[in-house]
Amino acid sequence: MDIPASQAREDAAAILASAPSVLAKAAAFVRGDGPAAQIDWAKIAYFAGQNVLSSGDRAFLGICAEIAGHNPDGRHPDQTFGARWDCLDGQHQSVIASVLAQSSQSKQCREREILEQLGVPSAYPSVPRPQLVRVRLGPDQPAVTNDALGRERVGYRDGASPHETWLRGRGVWRMQADRVIASQWLIVAHAGVVRMVGTIDGLTIHGDRIAIIGQPLPDHPYIGKPDPLDNNSQNPVAYGDMSDMTDVA
What is the model's pTM? Predict the structure, then answer.
């Protein structure tokens, strides 16, 4: 698949930005407030080569830099991770991006635990939790060609397994990334009823849309209760907090 270099750079920036850990924050100093195209990938690659980071952390940043087209070792272009990235289709790129982001997001959780145990102030912004995101599924229908999550069908289907309902609900949506990151729960609703509840552990970015990384909770007590954020909006995405959920208890 021949992807323009600018698209590869956008993909690399999305992977970097979707991992809200110390890695992304440490790399952000080369990014400034401008668009992703202004990232200095040479500096990212340099940072990835310094022994102040673990080998896994260096690999994460180095892969991002290579996807963006930076080749600090002067290797043959066909031998770089970036060249291989360009050969993948959208579904395989999505799988790899999800694994990279989820690994870094899991690292963030561990970093929080260590800082709390040491009594050290967290480097992460303090956000009120738990917050929730509600997505409203439409009727069962075929997925778009080259669906970002590899699905054949989307929407709500009677009799679907908890895993299938979660897969159909977790993406891909036009969402506010900062509000998703600040939230703990994803509520999947259909026809005014909560059909699935799951955790929000991270996210992946697919162009102008977002997919949520988390775990479905098929035994959650709110499943089967009225949609707490039901409204007349055409937007299937809504944001709330746990006080909305207690109203339906």
Answer: 0.58
